[in-house]
Design brief:
binds 2-keto-D-gluconic acid, alpha/beta, Rossmann fold, 14% strand, 12 strands
């Protein structure tokens, strides 16, 4: 039987590409070129399956333009906001994601963002690197300590729970807001807040871990930022669209917020120049899951989903 034809849109780790080449008639992208919308549509028309990253957007028009040949979008990401799930469902295209395997790596980056923000990591690094470190005093580069402070988690899913565990290691008190309250064994003493507003009032550090939807786009805005304790820290490793970046920049410039640690932005790649101009922001280029171990695991998980689909089974991580 002919192997199913699979497009892998971006350069993945060699162990993943080797497995894909063994089991599929695979189209790789060794130069890691970014697909234009037209090129993505044309390439997807030629295959049974696509294994994309969050950098490829499958909106309703793209799914329609691809037509009936494509059977499955097996994402190399936990987030699926780059795919119109309703349009995929309507077109009979399966969609899967890669949960669980990136929770540890993303939690590490959330903690890095928290500490980088609290301890002025960006300012310190820039000073030493640029040769401008010419002075030292006890009154110099004084940051905020996170130990024993309150850690607010918006979205207590898999990544939120692991990040909360890591924050517990700093003796932080965990608070969270989620669609539903977690069972006691997962809550581990964390304090549930029925509303976002209630969570914000107690979050010395607010860390975002929810998927972005049409309903929660811009949920962190001028009104909600004002509810945080004065000199709070905002951490975002989820999606840039959760935050109104103008409002965040204003709160950072006014001193309402002490600092922010951001791995995700509304514009990617690129980020936000207004945020980048502020000293009290620690910035990373969307590398939450970018570890050797996690990239391997994400690729393998996406291939597991494809294997199940082509064996006539329900893929483990089906989201549409
Ligand atoms: C990835 C992500 O870097 O999984 C997600 O949703 O945003 C990141 O982990 C990216 O999507 C890789 O394809």
């Amino acid at each position: 039987m002919a192997k199913p034809k699979l497009l892998i849109t971006r350069k993945l780790r060699s162990i993943v590409e080797e497995r894909a080449a063994r089991d599929y008639d695979v189209v790789l992208n060794p130069e890691d070129k970014v697909f234009s919308t037209e090129a993505l549509i044309a390439a997807c028309r030629e295959v049974d399956a696509v294994l994309p990253c969050h950098s490829e957007h499958f909106n309703a028009d793209v799914i329609k333009a691809i037509g009936p040949g494509l059977k499955i979008i097996a994402n190399h990401s936990v987030g699926t906001d780059h795919v119109d799930l309703d349009a995929a469902k309507a077109a009979g295209v399966f969609v899967t994601n890669t949960p669980d395997v990136l929770s540890d790596a993303t939690a590490e980056i959330a903690i890095l963002c928290m500490l980088g923000a609290a301890r002025r990591g960006a300012e310190g690094d820039a000073m030493v690197r640029s040769g401008k470190w010419t002075f030292w005093s006890p009154d110099f580069m004084v940051g905020r300590q996170v130990t024993a402070k309150r850690f607010g988690v918006l979205g207590m899913g898999r990544v939120g729970q692991v990040t909360a565990d890591r924050a517990r290691g700093f003796g932080m008190e965990i608070h969270y807001h989620n669609r539903s309250r977690l069972p006691e064994h997962l809550e581990k003493g964390a304090i549930f807040h029925e509303t976002l507003d209630s969570l914000l009032g107690v979050s010395d550090v607010l860390s975002l871990h929810c998927p972005v939807t049409a309903q929660n786009t811009g949920i962190i805005n001028a009104r909600t930022l004002a509810l945080l304790p004065d000199r709070a820290i905002v951490v975002n490793t989820a999606r840039g669209a959760l935050i109104d970046e103008d409002a965040l920049a204003a709160a950072l410039a006014s001193g309402k917020l002490f600092a922010a640690g951001l791995d995700v932005f509304r514009t990617e790649p690129g980020g936000n120049p207004a945020l980048a101009a502020l000293p009290n922001v620690f910035l990373l280029p969307h590398i939450g899951s970018a570890t050797e171990e996690t990239r391997d695991a994400m690729g393998m998980r996406a291939l597991d989903n494809l294997d199940a689909f082509f064996a006539g089974k329900e893929p483990g991580d089906r989201v549409a």
